[in-house]
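Q: Hi! Curious about what Iron chelate uptake ABC transporter family permease subunit looks like structurally. Here's the sequence.
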Amino acid sequence: MTNSRVWRSGGISLRIDERTIAVDLALLAAIAILGVWSIGAGDFPLPLGEVLWTLAGQGEDASRFIVFGLRLPRLLTGLFTGMAFGVAGAIFQSLARNPLASPDIIGFDAGAALGAVILVIVFGASGTPVALGAIGGGLITAAVVFALSWRRGGTPLRLVLVGIGVGFFAYAGVDFLMTRSDIFEAAAAQAWLTGSLNARLWSHVETIAAGLAILLPAALVLRPSLDRIELGDDLAAALGIRVDATRIVAGLVGVLLAALAVASAGPLPFVALVSSPIARRLSGAGVTLVTSALVGAAVVAAGDLGGRLVFAPTQLPVGVFTAILGAPYLLWLLATQIRKGAM
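A: Let's find out. The predicted structure is below.
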């Protein structure tokens, strides 16, 4: 049980969950620690005092270049990407009532990756066109998955299985394009497909921040409806929820969040999959979009920092590190679902 209170003022009432607030504050503190540590770590390490002094607007010219020109854009891109993946995962897991229904498992990330790679290899694009290609690929893939999985009625398990199949098809398209490109295009695309925050600039931060500014409020507005859909479609309809319309709108928001994240840092494995379950376990609540966003940000920040430090001087892309951490969780989740008879 969660310890919650209701705040009322005039005709407005707001439920305040004390445990969720405490968890969110702890996550913010953890993200701040990881962020300062990440800014100070690297080939040219900066002591804690220098990092804080530089962030405050002081510091030497070299420190300001390292912090504001190189490491802070990388950190913010990673945090915003993790937030987008975390909320997208929470939305789809809620809609499908299945912890396996995250964008990286049901093919949406793969579709976004295919759309971006087409723009990179076929049209030689970069920057904003690649982001638009990722969004377009994610939307087309989502439309295909939902069309195939909900014909003549559907189940959450069918959504997951169809999504996995469509995801493999999309990655096959990526592999085909890679074999048809020259070595330089293939190398650039492969570095992005691995999932990396290297060479991120303020333009990347601005793009994903603008997307989050639109999509996160939309997701928060949908949160009460998602809570009721988790009770079952019939009960949600009895409570006044327009189930089909909510699925369409929430699915669109989730796909756009996932595609935006893929466009910013590549298809980081397992971030969307693990964020919502961790958030639910920490807060003890139902659909926790804010907590899921913070968990996603912390996972990406920790993965990027770990990839740079654990095997130093060799640096692993953040996508490799999140895959190393997420694969055992996926195996555990599959075993749990099989024991429950859900698969």
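A: A fun detail: Residues 61-96 form the longest helix (36 residues).
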